[in-house]
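=== RUN LOG ===
request id: a7f3
mode: sequence -> structure
chains: 1
length: 372
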Amino acid sequence: MKTLFKTTALVSAMVIALGCSTAAQNTHQTDLKKPTLLAKLPVAFNSPASLTIDAYNNVLFTSPNLHNETFLKQGLIKSPAVPVIGLINQNDTVETWYTFKPTDMEPTSGTVVPMGIAKGPDGNIYIADMQLWAGGESRILRVNVKQGQAVDVDVVAKGLSFPNAVAWHDNNLYITDTVLATDKGKSTTSGVYKLNINELNAEKPVTLAKYQSQQQHDSHLFETFTSNGSLGFGANGLAFDDQGNMFTGLMEDGTVVKTTIDKNGQKLNSRIFAKGMVANDGIHWDSHSQALYITDLFDNALYAISTEGALTLLAKNGDTTGAMGELDAPGEAIVRGNKVYVTNFDAAFGAPNMVNQKPDMPVSLSVIQLED
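=== RESULT ===
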């Protein structure tokens, strides 16, 4: 398996300072909640990323293991960890749900880079395989599931640039492509693709045409966004509320865009819904609390966003290893019951306004208790 991720070299080269502030503006702040340690992960998991809930109410999470090279150099691991999908069961115990096999690997890069994850209406699990840093062709993978167990993996779409989050609404799979085009320091064009479940055929995967311009692109491109170009990272997190509204996080702008969709699945309009974060990452909707939950990767913070777009800061801390459950470059959060589960992605991009300074051990998952 080829080396996947040189955190500082690959990403900090794209970074231009986002500004001096590391505190969200226009944010309602109550007494902050204290994250606690759910688990210190074994060496098979070194960069927990995205989350979903399966048909049995287990929390599944991807771990592309992008810190292999860093941890090898530090002597913290003896060999590269193969990308995996983890499971948090009903007792909050973590186990390995699926380890990617040699036959799953992208042929050119020799690896899988599993980022976004979502349960489909067919009960199978869909994964964004983000190959941009690995040198292969980015893909959408379907993990076929029987009685809650992963059976095998199919490629159902390819041709994306930087597929990040995946989310289902009705029978359509929506995928953020974080970098369609970028003019470093000036603007980033990103977007959301929409694929119907009937198109996702392992015998003939959807092949998306490379994005050329706002006028020339694949017909599956559902929405595009222009952000400030400071990171080169645009559309990232993605979620749908109970009314079918789509929420897309623009990472480098620190904003969330709300897209209204009609009953036929056609886009009506998009507008800025929430703003004031530094560099937000994953998003999930919780029907019980009627709120979005979103992480700020750069600011070591977790927010809830109301249906009116008001930000409430739930948790925030300084640079940490995450050993006691503190947030450590949190990648995504999801609610199950009255708990918020948070992956500590532990990335360090070398940006002056990023709290986390280096990936380190232990790699951890955090949990935050909500009021009943």
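=== NOTES ===
The chain has one domain: 7-369.
The two ends are 45 Å apart (CA to CA).
=== END ===
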